[in-house]
Amino acid sequence: MPTKMTHICHVIIMLVILCLRHIRCASRPNIVLLIADDLGYGDIGCYGNTTLRTTNIDKLAQGGVKMTQHLTTASMCTPSRAALMTGRYGIRSGMAAIGTVRVCVFAASICGLPSSEVTLAELAKQGGYSTAAIAFSNWTNIRGQQLFMVQ
């Protein structure tokens, strides 16, 4: 049975894929990528939740692309986020484990994402976009983006 994190990761991956198709358009769309831990598919209003009020997210979804098909690369957030940022499975970037292979659990730890990995933010910058990360977490070293930490 898919977990809540699985659903949100699927939404995010599909959003990125669809948005990247339009990077070369003359009038480029704005891209807002929301990543949240433990947020389920039905936890926000635009996906059917009537209990929690998520009016601003609902407005963004109303004027943009809303994803309904999903895939996650791992059951942990770090490998899934690394996959989203690079387009590669976490094991290929050293951010996941298989058997006895070392896993990098926290992206802000000393192992981090290898500098040889090309990130979504770096590709967006090459396409003329300005990028930024607004973080409420331990992701303090995100290459290719200006970082705004909220604590």
Task: Map the helices and strands.
Layout: H1 4-20, H2 55-62, H3 77-86, H4 120-126, E1 132-135, E2 146-149
Parallel strand pairs: 1-2
Helix pairs in contact: 1-3
Descriptive overview:
The structure is a single chain. The chain has a two-stranded parallel ribbon with strand order 1-2. By secondary structure, the protein is mainly alpha-helical. The chain has helices at residues 4-20, 55-62, 77-86, 120-126; strands spanning 132-135, 146-149. The chain has two domains: 1-72, no CATH class; 74-151, no CATH class. The longest helix is centred in the N-terminal third of the chain and has 17 residues, at 4-20. Helix 1 runs parallel beside helix 3 (77-86).
Overall average pLDDT? 73
Work out the radius of gyration: 16 Å
Count of individual helical segments: 4
Distance between the termini: 33 Å
| Strand numbers in spatial order across the main sheet | 1-2
Which consecutive residue ranges, at least 5 long each, have pLDDT under 50?
A: none
Pfam families: Sulfatase
Family: Belongs to the sulfatase family.
Keywords: Calcium, Hydrolase, Metal-binding, Signal
Protein name: Sulfatase N-terminal domain-containing protein
